Amino acid sequence: MTAAPLATRPTSATPAPGLVRQLLRDTGYVLVGLPLALVGFVLAVAGISLTAGLLVTTLGLPVLAGTLYAARALADLERLRLPAVLRQPRVRPVYLAPEPGAGYWRRLATPMRDPQSWLDLLHAFVKLLVTLPTFALVLIWWVGGVAGTLYFAYDWAIPRGPGDQDLSELLGMGEGAGPRVALNTAIGIFFLLTLPLLARGCARAQAGLARSLLTGVAEMRNRISTLEDQKRAAASAEASALRRLERDIHDGPQQRLVRLAMDLGRARQQLAADPEAARRTLDEAVAQTRETLDELRALSRGIAPPILVDRGLPSALAALAARALIPTELVVDDGLGRPGGRLDPALESTAYFVVAEALTNVAKHSAATACRVEVARKVGRLEIDVQDDGVGGAHLAKGHGLSGIADRVRAVGGTLEVASPAGGPTAVRAELPR
């Protein structure tokens, strides 16, 4: 068993390229947003107006349905543009679908019964209110920045009358091309320096409105579904752990305690008639007591290992690897055991049990000759990799050892992947959010 700290990937010392890329993304998002907003506004106003005028006839409902579907298409286009600004994965709501075999009018009324369709239409109405000022601000800042910094190149071409006064003269900077170029260049530099911040704010304003109306409900539903899944996984993991603990106690310490009680009763009967036999019986009882204590200590490590609480995850995993039946190489970040670098207790416990159950599964089913455990702390997550050179065939089906790991990982919002082709090797990878 070996332990070594993991090397961290060096961070880039020049954030300028990323800043320029984000500036171009934000600018493109804001500038392209205006024509899309105009199209959406015209479509929404025209569709609602036609619907109101034709509502007395049967043509009003098809026009309204078509308007809602067109607003949905524009909303989908907006959702495709959001990840570049919000740096979040695309989220698309699940729209209400017509029932199989539904008639024409019922299918026509399906988008009207879907609240998200009306939110898409509302977004087409109100988007222009945010897009117009943000478009104007970004355009002004770009023009001011470029025109100001390049003013020296075209100052000579600007016509001036005999009574004209430049801004530099009004500010008391003096007459002539020098003060004029210096002032305009300074203004241009100010616009360029503040442009990334302004473009970011304008893009976030547009994207915030789109997110609240187009993906907010879907994100809330996804979050609720995720929390429900985590709750079920936590309950399943807890129930499995309790059943395993109950079985282990029944098969181990309980049987030894029953035998210990019988030995003590026999020693009491032998004490007067045969002291030597009583002594041998008491010796056996002492041995049974020691074995029972050893089993209870082993079981307690499956509940809350003291070394994990006292010394942190690296020491607990080192002890775990030392007890493993298969030769195990351990690579873990030493910072996880320092006072300022320790994880949340629940996350530490989950990481410990993921490794413990994975090693147990390796010892029981893999027929492996070597195993490697790697625990790395990355940005926003903890990565755990357990690999062995066994026969493979591991999977996450219920009733198998890895299903307990999957429940524990899902309970804290993490993910688990298992790659175990027939013939091996097997790789178990868990990512836990932190």
Provide a descriptive summary of the structure in words.
This protein is an alpha+beta fold and 434 residues long. It has helices spanning 16-54, 60-86, 104-109, 115-149, 151-154, 167-170, 177-251, 253-273, 275-301, 306-311, 313-323, 345-366, 401-411, and strands at residues 328-332, 371-378, 381-388, 415-419, 426-433.
Q: What is the CA-CA span between the terminal residues?
A: 27 Å
Q: Please give the order of strands in the largest beta sheet.
A: 1-2-3-5-4
Q: Identify the overall geometry.
A: elongated
Percent of residues in helices comes to 55-70%
By DSSP (H or I, 4+ residues per run), the number of helices equals 13
List the secondary-structure elements in sequence, H or E.
HHHHHHHHHHHEHEEHEE
**Secondary-structure class:** alpha+beta
Strand content: 5-15%
Q: If you average the pLDDT, what whole number results?
A: 79
Radius of gyration: 35 Å
Q: What is the tally of beta strands?
A: 5
Uncertain spans: 1-14
Q: Biggest β-sheet: count, sense, barrel?
A: 5 strands, mixed
Task: Provide key terms for this protein.
single chain; alpha+beta; 13 helices; 8% strand
How would you summarize the topology of this molecule?
Blueprint: H1 16-54, H2 60-86, H3 104-109, H4 115-149, H5 151-154, H6 167-170, H7 177-251, H8 253-273, H9 275-301, H10 306-311, H11 313-323, E1 328-332, H12 345-366, E2 371-378, E3 381-388, H13 401-411, E4 415-419, E5 426-433
Parallel strand pairs: 1-2
Antiparallel strand pairs: 2-3, 3-5, 4-5
Helix pairs in contact: 1-2, 1-4, 1-7, 2-4, 2-7, 4-7, 7-13, 8-9, 11-12, 12-13
